[in-house]
Protein backbone atom coordinates (compact mmCIF):
# COMPACT_ATOMS: atom_id res chain seq x y z
CA UNK A 1 0.00 0.00 0.00
CA UNK A 2 1.09 3.58 -0.48
CA UNK A 3 1.66 6.15 2.26
CA UNK A 4 -1.07 8.26 0.63
CA UNK A 5 -3.56 5.41 0.80
CA UNK A 6 -2.80 4.84 4.48
CA UNK A 7 -3.20 8.55 5.20
CA UNK A 8 -6.51 8.71 3.32
CA UNK A 9 -7.71 5.59 5.11
CA UNK A 10 -7.04 7.13 8.52
CA UNK A 11 -8.73 10.39 7.53
CA UNK A 12 -11.77 8.49 6.27
CA UNK A 13 -12.13 6.11 9.24
CA UNK A 14 -10.13 7.64 12.06
CA UNK A 15 -7.39 5.81 14.00
CA UNK A 16 -7.43 2.13 14.95
CA UNK A 17 -9.23 0.79 11.86
CA UNK A 18 -6.82 -1.70 10.25
CA UNK A 19 -5.60 -0.69 6.82
CA UNK A 20 -6.07 -3.55 4.32
CA UNK A 21 -3.08 -5.10 2.62
CA UNK A 22 -3.71 -3.87 -0.89
CA UNK A 23 -1.88 -2.08 -3.66
CA UNK A 24 -4.34 0.72 -4.36
CA UNK A 25 -4.85 2.22 -7.77
CA UNK A 26 -5.01 5.91 -8.59
CA UNK A 27 -8.78 5.81 -9.09
CA UNK A 28 -9.43 4.35 -5.63
CA UNK A 29 -7.13 6.90 -4.03
CA UNK A 30 -8.87 9.72 -5.90
CA UNK A 31 -12.29 8.51 -4.73
CA UNK A 32 -11.11 8.17 -1.14
CA UNK A 33 -9.82 11.76 -1.25
CA UNK A 34 -13.34 13.07 -1.92
CA UNK A 35 -14.50 15.88 0.31
CA UNK A 36 -17.52 18.17 0.24
CA UNK A 37 -16.60 21.66 -1.01
CA UNK A 38 -18.72 24.62 0.00
CA UNK A 39 -16.31 27.49 -0.78
CA UNK A 40 -15.31 28.25 -4.37
CA UNK A 41 -13.19 30.60 -6.40
CA UNK A 42 -15.00 32.61 -9.07
CA UNK A 43 -12.77 31.02 -11.71
CA UNK A 44 -14.75 29.49 -14.61
CA UNK A 45 -14.49 25.78 -15.27
CA UNK A 46 -11.86 24.70 -17.81
CA UNK A 47 -13.10 24.55 -21.38
CA UNK A 48 -14.74 21.18 -22.01
CA UNK A 49 -14.79 20.07 -18.34
CA UNK A 50 -18.59 20.00 -18.26
CA UNK A 51 -18.87 18.04 -21.48
CA UNK A 52 -16.23 15.54 -20.34
CA UNK A 53 -18.06 15.04 -17.03
CA UNK A 54 -21.37 14.44 -18.81
CA UNK A 55 -19.67 11.91 -21.07
CA UNK A 56 -18.40 10.18 -17.91
CA UNK A 57 -21.94 10.27 -16.51
CA UNK A 58 -23.34 8.74 -19.70
CA UNK A 59 -20.69 6.03 -19.50
CA UNK A 60 -22.17 4.82 -16.20
CA UNK A 61 -24.31 1.70 -16.01
CA UNK A 62 -27.92 2.27 -17.07
CA UNK A 63 -30.72 -0.18 -16.29
CA UNK A 64 -31.80 -1.80 -19.59
CA UNK A 65 -30.05 1.14 -21.29
CA UNK A 66 -33.17 3.24 -20.73
CA UNK A 67 -31.03 6.30 -19.91
CA UNK A 68 -33.80 7.62 -17.72
CA UNK A 69 -32.14 10.83 -16.51
CA UNK A 70 -31.24 14.30 -17.74
CA UNK A 71 -29.32 17.26 -16.29
CA UNK A 72 -29.69 21.04 -16.56
CA UNK A 73 -26.48 23.09 -16.42
CA UNK A 74 -26.91 26.59 -14.96
CA UNK A 75 -24.27 29.33 -15.13
CA UNK A 76 -26.52 32.41 -15.25
CA UNK A 77 -26.04 34.22 -11.95
CA UNK A 78 -29.61 35.45 -11.65
CA UNK A 79 -30.99 31.94 -12.10
CA UNK A 80 -28.48 30.52 -9.60
CA UNK A 81 -29.59 33.19 -7.13
CA UNK A 82 -33.25 32.26 -7.56
CA UNK A 83 -32.52 28.56 -7.19
CA UNK A 84 -30.36 29.20 -4.13
CA UNK A 85 -33.30 30.99 -2.53
CA UNK A 86 -35.48 27.95 -3.20
CA UNK A 87 -32.82 25.62 -1.73
CA UNK A 88 -32.45 26.97 1.80
CA UNK A 89 -30.39 30.01 0.72
CA UNK A 90 -27.17 28.03 0.47
CA UNK A 91 -24.39 30.49 -0.35
CA UNK A 92 -22.32 27.99 -2.34
CA UNK A 93 -25.11 27.65 -4.90
CA UNK A 94 -24.67 31.33 -5.68
CA UNK A 95 -20.89 31.25 -5.42
CA UNK A 96 -19.98 28.20 -7.51
CA UNK A 97 -19.57 28.95 -11.22
CA UNK A 98 -21.67 25.93 -12.23
CA UNK A 99 -24.88 24.46 -10.86
CA UNK A 100 -26.16 21.17 -12.20
CA UNK A 101 -29.72 20.04 -11.52
CA UNK A 102 -30.06 16.29 -12.07
CA UNK A 103 -33.44 14.98 -13.18
CA UNK A 104 -35.35 11.73 -13.20
CA UNK A 105 -36.65 11.98 -16.76
CA UNK A 106 -39.56 9.80 -17.82
CA UNK A 107 -40.71 12.43 -20.29
CA UNK A 108 -38.22 11.48 -22.99
CA UNK A 109 -39.34 7.83 -22.93
CA UNK A 110 -43.02 8.88 -22.91
CA UNK A 111 -42.43 11.04 -25.99
CA UNK A 112 -40.51 8.20 -27.65
CA UNK A 113 -43.41 5.82 -27.03
CA UNK A 114 -45.88 8.30 -28.48
CA UNK A 115 -43.70 8.86 -31.55
CA UNK A 116 -43.39 5.11 -32.10
CA UNK A 117 -47.01 4.34 -31.30
CA UNK A 118 -45.96 2.06 -28.43
CA UNK A 119 -47.42 1.82 -24.89
CA UNK A 120 -45.37 3.04 -21.92
CA UNK A 121 -47.62 1.85 -19.07
CA UNK A 122 -44.67 0.74 -16.94
CA UNK A 123 -43.66 4.37 -16.44
CA UNK A 124 -46.50 4.46 -13.89
CA UNK A 125 -44.86 1.94 -11.56
CA UNK A 126 -42.72 2.63 -8.50
CA UNK A 127 -40.01 0.25 -9.64
CA UNK A 128 -39.42 2.32 -12.77
CA UNK A 129 -39.13 5.44 -10.59
CA UNK A 130 -36.53 3.59 -8.50
CA UNK A 131 -34.65 2.79 -11.70
CA UNK A 132 -34.57 6.50 -12.50
CA UNK A 133 -33.44 7.43 -8.98
CA UNK A 134 -30.67 4.82 -9.00
CA UNK A 135 -29.49 5.61 -12.52
CA UNK A 136 -29.29 9.38 -11.97
CA UNK A 137 -27.26 8.83 -8.79
CA UNK A 138 -24.82 6.50 -10.53
CA UNK A 139 -24.47 8.91 -13.43
CA UNK A 140 -23.89 11.94 -11.20
CA UNK A 141 -21.19 10.15 -9.22
CA UNK A 142 -19.33 9.36 -12.45
CA UNK A 143 -19.51 13.07 -13.28
CA UNK A 144 -18.19 13.93 -9.82
CA UNK A 145 -15.21 11.62 -10.32
CA UNK A 146 -14.47 13.40 -13.60
CA UNK A 147 -14.77 16.85 -12.03
CA UNK A 148 -12.53 15.94 -9.12
CA UNK A 149 -9.91 14.44 -11.44
CA UNK A 150 -9.80 17.88 -13.10
CA UNK A 151 -9.08 19.56 -9.76
CA UNK A 152 -12.65 20.75 -9.18
CA UNK A 153 -14.76 20.37 -6.06
CA UNK A 154 -18.44 19.61 -5.59
CA UNK A 155 -21.28 19.51 -3.11
CA UNK A 156 -24.51 17.58 -3.60
CA UNK A 157 -27.68 19.58 -2.98
CA UNK A 158 -30.63 17.60 -1.66
CA UNK A 159 -32.23 20.95 -0.77
CA UNK A 160 -32.99 21.39 -4.46
CA UNK A 161 -36.06 19.26 -3.60
CA UNK A 162 -37.23 21.62 -0.83
CA UNK A 163 -39.37 23.52 -3.32
CA UNK A 164 -39.51 21.04 -6.18
CA UNK A 165 -42.54 22.58 -7.86
CA UNK A 166 -40.96 26.06 -8.00
CA UNK A 167 -37.65 24.61 -9.21
CA UNK A 168 -39.50 22.72 -11.96
CA UNK A 169 -41.15 25.97 -13.02
CA UNK A 170 -37.83 27.84 -13.01
CA UNK A 171 -36.24 25.16 -15.21
CA UNK A 172 -39.30 24.77 -17.46
CA UNK A 173 -39.48 21.04 -16.75
CA UNK A 174 -42.00 19.12 -18.86
CA UNK A 175 -44.40 16.53 -17.42
CA UNK A 176 -42.89 13.29 -16.12
CA UNK A 177 -39.60 15.01 -15.27
CA UNK A 178 -38.61 15.51 -11.62
CA UNK A 179 -35.75 17.10 -9.71
CA UNK A 180 -33.51 14.50 -8.07
CA UNK A 181 -30.81 16.77 -6.58
CA UNK A 182 -28.42 19.57 -7.40
CA UNK A 183 -24.64 19.72 -7.67
CA UNK A 184 -22.47 22.79 -7.22
CA UNK A 185 -19.15 22.64 -9.09
CA UNK A 186 -16.08 24.85 -9.06
CA UNK A 187 -12.48 25.29 -8.05
CA UNK A 188 -12.14 24.99 -4.25
CA UNK A 189 -11.11 28.15 -2.42
CA UNK A 190 -7.66 27.35 -0.94
CA UNK A 191 -8.24 29.85 1.86
CA UNK A 192 -11.23 27.82 3.05
CA UNK A 193 -10.06 24.23 2.62
CA UNK A 194 -12.45 21.31 2.95
CA UNK A 195 -11.44 18.19 4.82
CA UNK A 196 -12.29 14.52 4.50
CA UNK A 197 -15.29 13.68 6.65
CA UNK A 198 -14.97 10.36 8.50
CA UNK A 199 -17.38 7.52 7.81
CA UNK A 200 -18.60 4.46 9.65
CA UNK A 201 -15.95 1.74 9.71
CA UNK A 202 -16.22 -0.86 6.93
CA UNK A 203 -17.06 -3.50 9.56
CA UNK A 204 -20.39 -1.72 10.16
CA UNK A 205 -21.54 -1.53 6.55
CA UNK A 206 -19.86 -4.58 4.96
CA UNK A 207 -21.73 -7.83 5.54
CA UNK A 208 -20.49 -11.19 4.27
CA UNK A 209 -22.92 -13.83 2.99
CA UNK A 210 -25.78 -12.62 5.26
CA UNK A 211 -26.70 -9.44 7.10
CA UNK A 212 -25.15 -9.42 10.57
CA UNK A 213 -25.69 -6.47 12.90
CA UNK A 214 -24.11 -8.12 15.95
CA UNK A 215 -21.12 -5.75 15.97
CA UNK A 216 -23.02 -2.69 14.84
CA UNK A 217 -23.43 -0.96 18.20
CA UNK A 218 -19.74 -1.16 18.99
CA UNK A 219 -18.89 0.30 15.59
CA UNK A 220 -21.45 3.09 15.89
CA UNK A 221 -20.26 3.98 19.40
CA UNK A 222 -16.69 4.28 18.15
CA UNK A 223 -17.82 6.34 15.16
CA UNK A 224 -19.77 8.72 17.38
CA UNK A 225 -16.46 9.60 19.05
CA UNK A 226 -14.58 9.92 15.74
CA UNK A 227 -17.32 12.15 14.31
CA UNK A 228 -17.40 14.39 17.39
CA UNK A 229 -13.61 14.81 17.21
CA UNK A 230 -13.90 15.79 13.53
CA UNK A 231 -16.59 18.35 14.34
CA UNK A 232 -14.41 19.88 17.04
CA UNK A 233 -11.38 20.03 14.73
CA UNK A 234 -13.53 21.84 12.13
CA UNK A 235 -14.63 24.42 14.70
CA UNK A 236 -18.18 23.05 14.61
CA UNK A 237 -20.40 21.96 17.53
CA UNK A 238 -18.88 18.86 19.08
CA UNK A 239 -21.80 16.53 18.48
CA UNK A 240 -21.91 12.80 17.89
CA UNK A 241 -23.05 11.30 14.59
CA UNK A 242 -26.24 10.08 16.28
CA UNK A 243 -26.95 13.62 17.51
CA UNK A 244 -26.43 15.01 14.00
CA UNK A 245 -28.39 12.32 12.17
CA UNK A 246 -31.42 11.30 14.22
CA UNK A 247 -33.03 14.78 14.33
CA UNK A 248 -33.23 14.59 10.54
CA UNK A 249 -35.58 11.61 10.96
CA UNK A 250 -37.61 12.88 13.90
CA UNK A 251 -40.49 14.69 12.17
CA UNK A 252 -41.64 15.94 8.75
CA UNK A 253 -40.49 19.44 9.75
CA UNK A 254 -36.89 18.26 9.29
CA UNK A 255 -37.62 17.55 5.60
CA UNK A 256 -37.92 21.30 4.88
CA UNK A 257 -40.79 20.93 2.42
CA UNK A 258 -39.76 17.58 0.99
CA UNK A 259 -42.55 15.90 2.96
CA UNK A 260 -44.83 17.09 0.11
CA UNK A 261 -42.70 15.48 -2.60
CA UNK A 262 -45.26 12.81 -3.51
CA UNK A 263 -47.84 15.51 -4.22
CA UNK A 264 -45.36 17.39 -6.42
CA UNK A 265 -44.51 14.22 -8.33
CA UNK A 266 -48.18 13.52 -8.93
CA UNK A 267 -48.62 17.04 -10.33
CA UNK A 268 -45.71 16.30 -12.68
CA UNK A 269 -47.54 13.21 -13.94
CA UNK A 270 -45.86 10.44 -11.90
CA UNK A 271 -48.31 7.82 -10.67
CA UNK A 272 -46.02 5.59 -8.55
CA UNK A 273 -48.31 2.55 -8.46
Automatic annotation (TrEMBL):
Domain annotation Nitroreductase: ranges: 32-186
InterPro entries: Flavin_OxRdtase_Frp (IPR016446), Nitroreductase (IPR029479), Nitroreductase-like (IPR000415)
Keyword set includes Flavoprotein: yes
Keywords carried by this UniProt record: Flavoprotein, FMN, NADP, Oxidoreductase
Keyword flag Ubl conjugation: no
Family: Belongs to the flavin oxidoreductase frp family.
Annotated protein name in UniProt: Nitroreductase family protein
Domain of life: Bacteria
